[in-house]
Design a protein that fits this description.
about 190 residues; alpha/beta; Nucleotidyltransferase, domain 5; five-stranded mixed β-sheet; RNaseH_sf; nucleic acid binding; IS630 family transposase; Tc1-like_DDE_dom
């Protein structure tokens, strides 16, 4: 595993940031809430947080923004992930793109590979245990912090908020996520879709 991570790190400078598309998913719940707050000295902070419902947010990140964001009610399954790649991600890919995913079982499904290759893109897997090499992890961290601050309490509110917030990642911010993970960060030269 150590060798795989070292090999990935050594190959990162050769990757074209304009073709990289990093895919991942994250869980969120309607009961997410801030873990700290303020109240008068000597008093305990009390805040109601209802029982939550879990959702999964699936998206891809390019050096210039997010691609194909989807909110799934509940956990992501292999069939749901394949359907999402076929319907949302593959149409957003360009010939020559390199789709990078971690080693989650649903990412290894044959339907995922077929849909990506049919779009003219290549597929690569991150080394095991390498979230530090996936820029979308940083974007998800920020998205979850915003979601906690907004305190959305219904599935629909979470979906709406995640949709508008994921679109709010500016190109410079996305390039910063790439840079912090060790990827080259030249301004993408490809025209947007």
């Amino acid at each position: 595993m150590k060798e795989q991570r070292a090999a990935w790190r050594a190959g990162q400078p050769a990757l074209d940031p304009a073709t990289l598309v990093l895919v991942d998913e994250t869980r969120a719940s309607t009961n997410v809430a801030r873990t700290h707050g303020r109240c008068p000295t000597g008093r305990r902070l009390v805040m109601a947080v209802p029982h939550g419902k879990t959702t999964t947010f699936v998206a891809a990140l390019r050096a210039d923004g997010t691609v194909a964001p989807t909110v799934i009610d509940g956990a992501v399954t292999g069939d749901l992930f394949v359907a999402d790649v076929e319907r949302r991600l593959a149409p957003a890919l360009r010939p020559g793109d390199v789709v990078v995913m971690d080693n989650l079982a649903c990412h290894k499904r044959a339907g995922v590979r077929r849909a990506i290759e049919a779009a003219g893109a290549a597929r690569r897997r991150l080394p095991p245990y390498s979230p530090d090499r996936n820029p979308i992890e940083r974007a998800f961290r920020k998205l979850k912090a915003r979601l906690r601050a907004a305190a959305k309490r219904t599935i629909r509110a979470v979906e709406d908020y995640r949709g508008e917030r994921s679109a709010a990642f500016a190109p410079e911010e996305c390039r910063n996520y790439f840079r912090s993970c060790g990827y080259p960060t030249a301004t993408p030269t490809r025209e947007p879709l």
